[in-house]
Amino acid sequence: MAIILLDRIVAAAAAVRRVVTGQADVSRAAWVAVLAAFGVVVATVVSIISVVRTPEQLAPVTLDAPPSVDQLGTPTPGTPRGQAHPAATSQTTAASPSVSAAPPPVESPTSAPAAAPSSASPTPATLAADFAIEDKALLSYGAAVTINNPGPVPVAQWMLAITLPRESLRISTVQGARATQDGAVWTFVPDGSAGQVPGSASARVTFRVNGAAVGATPTACTIDGVTCGGLSN
Question: Do residues 220 and 163 lie in contact, with contact meaning Cβ atoms separated by under 8 Å?
C-alpha cells in the first residue's frame, strides 16, 4: 500500500514539474488531470494518517449472539415468530388477613318460662249428707238424702250407703241415683251425669221404703264413709 502511494506521488510530482517547466504541452485536460491526481494524493495521505492515528476503527465488526430461549421467554400461542415476549414474572402478593372484629353477643332478654298447666286435678272436697223422712203412709214412707259439696270442684263419683233394720224391707222409686241391695244394706251411686254434685252446691237422692211405716227408719247412713246428719236412732 505504501509503495503504491509513493509511486502515485512521484508520478504526480513529475507531471507538475513538466507543466511548470514548460516541457509538456499544457492543455485544459492536462490541468484537470493534474488536479485530479493531486486530489487523489491528498485523499490518500489523509486516509493513511487517519488509519495510523485510529487503528481501532479498522477492527472487524462483531455481531451480538442471538438471545437464548430463557431470555426471550416462551412465546404465547398466536404470537408470530420473531416477536419475543419477555418472560412474565409472577409476583405473589401476600394477602393481608382482614381482621374483622366479631360483634358482641346480643343477650336475648330472659323471660320467665310460662307456668306449665298443672296436670294434677284439684282435689275435690269431702261431701256431707243429710237424711230426712218426707212423708209417711200405712206401710211405707218416703225419704230423701241431700248431698252437699262444700268445695269449688264438682264431684262426679260418690257412694251413699243406707242400712235398713230388716232385710225384708224394700226400696223403690229411686231418683237421682242407682240403687243395689246387699242384705239390709242399700248402696246408691251416681246415675250418669245426673248424679254429679256441682261445686259449692248440692244434689238430692229420693226413694221410698216399703214394708213398714213405724220403726222402719234406717239404722245407718254414710256418704263416702262419712255419717249422714239428720238420722235419729
Answer: yes
For 182, the grid coordinates are: 246387699
CB 69 within 8 A of CB 75: no
What sign for the dihedral angle of Cα 29, 30, 35, 40?
Answer: positive
Q: Which of these, 60, 198, 220, lies nearest to 131 by C-alpha position?
A: 220
Residue 224 CA, distance from chain mean position: 62
Spacing of C-alpha 62 from chain mean position = 74
Q: Is 156 left (phi over 0), alpha (psi -120 to 50) or beta?
A: alpha
Residue 49 grid cell: 494518517
Report the alpha-carbon distance of residue 43 to residue 143 in Å, rounded.
Answer: 174
Does the global pTM surpass 0.85?
no
- Please count the other Cβ atoms lying within 10 Å of the Cβ belonging to residue 227: 12
CA distance 8 to 202: 169
Q: Which is it for strands 128-136 and 140-148: parallel, antiparallel or unpaired? A: antiparallel
Please name the amino acid found at residue 157: Q
**One pLDDT digit (tens) per residue for the chain, 233 residues:** 556 655 666 666 666 566 556 544 546 656 556 566 667 667 766 666 665 565 555 555 555 555 555 555 555 555 445 454 544 444 544 444 454 555 666 665 555 555 555 567 789 999 999 999 999 998 999 999 999 999 999 999 999 999 999 999 999 999 999 999 999 999 999 988 768 899 999 999 999 999 987 778 999 999 999 999 998 75
